[in-house]
Amino acid sequence: MQIIVRDNNVDQALRALKKKLQREGVYREMKLRRHYEKPSEKRAREKAAAVRRARKMDRKRAERDGVR
Questions:
Q1: In this structure, are 45 and 68 located in the same domain?
Q2: Which CA distances in Å does 55 have to 29, 62, 63, 66, 68?
Q3: Which residues are CB-neighbours of 3 under 8 A, at least 6 positions away?
Q4: Do 42 and 22 fall within a single domain?
Q5: pLDDT at position 68
Q6: What is the tally of structural domains in the chain?
Q7: Region entry Disordered: which residue ranges (predicted)?
Q8: Are residues 45 and 20 in the same domain?
Q9: CA–CA dist 66, 42 (Å, integer)
Q10: What is the Rg, in whole angstroms, of the alpha carbon atoms belonging to the chain?
Q11: Could you tell me the residue range of the domain that residue 58 belongs to?
């Protein structure tokens, strides 16, 4: 990853770097790797995330189709 510092404006470059890291999911990954996660806990977390995504898609689809 590369950030260009223009006119010695390090603060702006830092903001851009943080935004890129956030978009890439690096902060989330660091948080997850802070402690060991058992494989069963990982499966449960990923399954819960999939359920949340599916429910969200269903809500959006229902809203778009005018079912509500």
A1: yes
A2: 24, 10, 12, 16, 15
A3: 13, 16, 17, 20
A4: no
A5: 55
A6: 2
A7: 36-68
A8: no
A9: 36
A10: 19
A11: 36-68
Kindly indicate the confidence band of residue 55, based on its pLDDT and cuts at 50, 70 and 90: very high
Q: How is residue 35 annotated by DSSP?
A: S
pTM over 0.90: no
Same domain for 68 and 48, yes or no, is yes
H helices of the chain, where? 10-24, 26-33, 39-65
Does 29 share its domain with 48?
no
Residue 17 burial class via C-beta count within 10 angstroms: exposed 0-12, middle 13-18, buried 19 and up: middle
One domain for residues 45 and 31: no
